Amino acid sequence: MSEFAPICIYLVISPLVSLIPLGVPFPFASNSSTYPEKLSAYECGFDPFASDQCPQKQGVRPRVPTRTPEKPNSAPRTIAKVQLSNRHDIFAHIPGEGHNSQEHSIVLIRGGRVKDSPGMKSDCIRGVKDLLGIPDRRKGRSKYGAGKPKSR
């Protein structure tokens, strides 16, 4: 063995050892000197409702897009990109047929999943703030912000 062999081994292993504190796995390690554990969305504070423990949040609509659902459905879903008061940006579904909401209108958001739209985990509340309810609705009025119909 030559006198340069220990220096060559040091030059190969020393960069690998310096990477261990960064969470990069050491190639010769047997068990766990590897990546740190992943945190859940709740622990990181990315869930806009769970992090504040609130049933509704207020937000502003910067955009008014529509989105097509997953197969086999095809009718475009009216959605709202909402910037919440805690600075989170989310997509929320606008229930019912038609809406009056425009850019930069203020809406109130509650939880509620839309099955055929991926990533949609909240609903806009109709009849509150700038989003009007559905006029002349008879059934399920509380979900759509409709008033009590006039008796005949």
TrEMBL record:
It comes from the Eukaryota. GO terms for biological process: translation. One of its GO terms (cellular component) is small ribosomal subunit. Coiled coil: none annotated. Keywords: Membrane, Ribonucleoprotein, Ribosomal protein, Transmembrane, Transmembrane helix. The chain crosses the membrane at residues 7-28. Belongs to the universal ribosomal protein uS12 family. NCBIfam families: rpsL_bact (TIGR00981). This is Small ribosomal subunit protein uS12m. It comes from Helianthus annuus (Common sunflower). The lineage of its organism: Eukaryota, Viridiplantae, Streptophyta, Embryophyta, Tracheophyta.
